[in-house]
Amino acid sequence: MAGSKVDTLIGFAIKAGKIKFGGELVSREYRDVYIILVSADAAKNTMKVATNAGRRFSCPIVVCDDLAGAVHKKDCKICAIKDSNLAKGIVENLTEGYRLYTGGANA
C-alpha cells in the first residue's frame, strides 16, 4: 500500500487541512464531507457513525486495511475528507487495501 496514489491523495488532504479525524468530529460535521474513510478493524459503533455520516452527506464510505498508516496517526479508525476533488481522486484510484463499503456485516 505504501506509495499508492490513494495514500498520496490522503497526504494532500492532510497537508491542506481538508480532513477530520475521529468519530466525534466526523459526526459533528454539518457540511462539505465528500468521502468517509474507515478502518477495516473499526468497532461496530464506529461503522455506525460512518454509515450515518455517509447517509447524511450522500458520500461513499471507503474501508481501508491500514487507515492509521495511511493518515500517519496511531489508532485512527475513521476520518472524513472535505475536498470534492481529492475525494473523487480517491474513489477513482482505489487499489489493493482500499474498497468501497456496500453495507453488511463484512466491512
Could you state the order of secondary-structure elements as H and E?
Answer: HEHEHEHEHE
Strand order of the largest sheet: 1-4-2-3-5
Strand percent estimate: 15-25%
Q: Which stretches of 5+ consecutive residues score pLDDT under 50?
A: none
Measure the end-to-end span: 18 Å
Biggest β-sheet description = 5 strands, mixed
Counted beta strands: 5
Radius of gyration: 12 Å
Class from secondary-structure proportions: alpha+beta
Average pLDDT, rounded to a whole number, is 90
Percentage of residues in helical conformation: 40-55%
Shape: globular
Count of DSSP helices?
5
What's the helix and strand layout?
Blueprint: H1 5-16, E1 19-21, H2 23-28, E2 35-39, H3 44-57, E3 61-64, H4 67-71, E4 78-81, H5 84-92, E5 98-100
Parallel strand pairs: 2-3
Antiparallel strand pairs: 1-4, 2-4, 3-5
Helix pairs in contact: 1-5
How would you portray this structure in words?
The structure is a single chain. This protein has 107 residues and is α+β, with helices and mostly antiparallel strands. Helices cover 43% and strands 18% of the residues. The longest helix is centred in the middle third of the chain and has 14 residues, at 44-57. It has five helices and five strands; from the N terminus they run H-E-H-E-H-E-H-E-H-E. Helix 1 (5-16) runs antiparallel to helix 5. A five-stranded mixed sheet has the order 1-4-2-3-5, with helices on both faces.
